[in-house]
């Protein structure tokens, strides 16, 4: 199965990324997208592979990694050859129980205890449904400002923290950020980890539909055990019919139900058809007691029954003879 790593297109508008040299930009993209990355944001970094994959020298990669640490973008444990990408979990959602289960497994494989504790703390902070807890709650978690490998590098001078940027409350096209989060979570609850391409598709759909309508299409695909393409087909049909809100969806469902009944029962209302049903179909129907018959009528009926029995026995005998003749 293909593995995707999410890199938002807005990365190229980021001031920090814009300040990097071409080599540093390549290393940063490599750090986030190479085949050894994991869902938890901690993985073993192999310099020999990085040199081959990027085509850069070891010195150039080490210089870039040192800058990333100084700028508080990642942490490095040289003793375990592991790195932790800060804010990875913030931009790679683990709200889906399936994704959270993957992170639980990965945490057990993290060699650097401080990194494992940092991942657990961040997941709890973001309210991701992981089951792991820190081995010891009295352990002091690592500060993001420094590398784990404190013995091999000097502690950086504290610098003034920039004002945190306000997160936009709405996306382009008037889509609320919370609404998009609900849509993404609904998708991940059904199909697991979301690729960047799928995320862009959902953003586009959310621009044209009320967010609850997009979630409803996902729910209907899930109810029918279908893929996301099924939900997209529903959205395309609604869009073609001018349906973009849940109120319009409900009205469309009612019209569809009325059309189905029209095809089944014609112009007559269903209640009228039920009133024309035979008396014995009524749940409260009680059969009338049989009227007594006289002796002559009974004798006639018995004669008819005797004649029928005789004819039946005669047919059975004829069939038996034919079978015996065919068997010879």
TrEMBL record:
Ranges of compositional bias, category Basic and acidic residues = 297-328
Q: Where is the DnaB/C C-terminal domain?
A: 184-249
Name of this protein: DnaD domain protein
- Compositional bias, Acidic residues, is annotated for 152-162
Q: Which family does it belong to?
A: Belongs to the DnaB/DnaD family.
- What Pfam family is a match for this entry? DnaB_2
Source domain of life is Bacteria
Q: Where is this region: Disordered?
A: 150-176, 273-328
């Amino acid at each position: 199965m293909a593995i995707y790593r999410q890199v938002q297109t807005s990365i190229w508008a980021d001031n920090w990324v814009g300040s990097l040299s071409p080599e540093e930009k390549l290393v940063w993209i490599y750090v986030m997208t190479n085949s050894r990355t994991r869902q938890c944001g901690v993985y073993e970094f192999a310099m020999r592979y990085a040199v081959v994959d990027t085509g850069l020298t070891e010195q150039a990669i080490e210089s870039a990694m040192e800058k990333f640490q100084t700028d508080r973008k990642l942490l490095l444990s040289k003793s375990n050859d592991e790195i932790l990408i800060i804010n990875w979990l913030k931009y790679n959602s683990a709200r889906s129980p399936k994704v959270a289960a993957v992170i639980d497994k990965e945490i057990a494989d993290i060699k650097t205890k401080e990194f494992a504790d940092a991942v657990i703390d961040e997941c709890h902070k973001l309210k991701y449904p992981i089951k792991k807890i820190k081995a010891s709650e009295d352990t002091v978690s690592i500060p993001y400002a420094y590398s784990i490998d404190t013995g091999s590098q000097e502690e950086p001078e504290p610098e003034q923290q920039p004002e945190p940027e306000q997160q936009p409350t709405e996306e382009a096209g008037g889509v609320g950020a919370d609404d998009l989060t609900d849509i993404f979570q609904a998708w991940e609850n059904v199909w697991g980890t979301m690729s960047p391409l799928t995320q862009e598709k959902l953003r586009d759909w959310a621009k044209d539909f009320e967010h609850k309508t997009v979630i409803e299409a996902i729910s209907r695909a899930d109810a029918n055990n279908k893929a996301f393409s099924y939900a997209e087909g529903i959205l395309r049909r609604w869009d073609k019919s001018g349906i973009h809100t849940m109120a319009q969806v409900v009205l469309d469902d009612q019209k569809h139900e009325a059309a189905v009944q029209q095809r089944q029962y014609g112009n007559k209302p269903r209640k009228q058809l039920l009133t024309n049903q035979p008396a014995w179909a009524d749940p409260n129907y009680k059969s009338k007691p049989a009227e007594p018959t006289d002796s002559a009528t009974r004798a006639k009926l018995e004669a008819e029954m005797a004649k029928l029995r005789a004819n039946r026995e005669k047919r059975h005998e004829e069939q038996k003879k034919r079978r015996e003749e065919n068997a010879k």
